Amino acid sequence: MTIEAKTIATDYDRPASLDAPRAPRAQSRTNFEKWAWLFMRFSGMLLVILAIGHVFIMLAWDDGVHRIDASFVAARWKEPFWQVWDLTMLWLAQLHGGNGLRTVISDYSRNDRTRFWLNSLLAISMILVLVLGTYAILTFGSSS
Length: 144
Fold this sequence. Notes:
The protein has about 140 residues and is mostly helical. About 65% of the residues lie in helices and about 0% in strands. It has 5 helices and no strands. It has helices at about 15-20, 30-60, 70-75, 80-110, 110-140. About 0% of the residues are buried.
């Protein structure tokens, strides 16, 4: 005779693995979570390098913050090197942060419908920031 422990929480609060810990799990067809995990590690390392370089160049180089104005930014973003640097920082930071928030949503949303709508809002906001940020970097200072 087995005695089952009483639980106060509802069924959806418990991970599926607790109900049948030895049951075979469905294998996913992709390794998305593995690649997302690896992306977080490598993008984090690259972002540290890009951000420290950015802070050093903008704050410690020449006159520091006293030289930064719209004309300085326009002149900087006319050079392809700085466009690539800042675009890389924008895209990596947005994708890194969005992936982290996707993980938090997955961990803490209890309802599938809530998870779907939160992930949809996250995707829309990420796309909006990436499109507007890329547009600003590539067209800033150019006369139309």
